[in-house]
Amino acid sequence: MKGKRRGGQGGKRLVPRRKSILYRHKKSVMVICAVLGLLMGVLGAGSVRLCAKIDSYKQQEAELQSQIEEAKKRAEEIKAYEEYVQTDDYVKDVAEEKLGLVDPEDIVFKPQE
After folding, report:
1. CB 26 within 8 A of CB 40
2. Which of the 8 DSSP states describes residue 105?
3. Domain coordinates of the chain in residue numbers?
4. How many CB atoms are located within 10 Å of the residue 36 CB?
5. Overall pTM surpassing 0.85 (yes/no)
6. pLDDT along the chain (113 residues), means of 10
7. Which string of b and e fits 87-110 if b means at least 16 CB within 10 Å?
8. Can you spell out the DSSP letters for 31-54?
9. Phi, psi dihedral angles at 3 (to 5 degrees)
């Protein structure tokens, strides 16, 4: 044991030198710091990637929401058309357009030949 004398020149009492805990375990502390730095880097990169995914999902959600609104409007139009198809006005319109029939109260003008 290496020691240093204390208590004057004539004292025979030896006190061992004590190195600081950090100095004795310098390599261990450096390895732990490196591992912590690496973990922080990995977590930071993962966080950035997750934020980008969240933004992408929010944009996708907004697009899907607008598609839902368009689908609801289209469903309302189809329902209104379904109700119209069941009326006499629809039958009359189809008869006039496709079959060329006219209502007896209508005045028909024929072109001169």
Report:
1. no
2. T
3. 18-97
4. 10
5. no
6. 52 62 78 96 96 97 97 97 92 85 78 80
7. eeeeeeeeeeeeeeeeeeeeeeee
8. HHHHHHHHHHHHHHHHHHHHHHHH
9. -145, 175
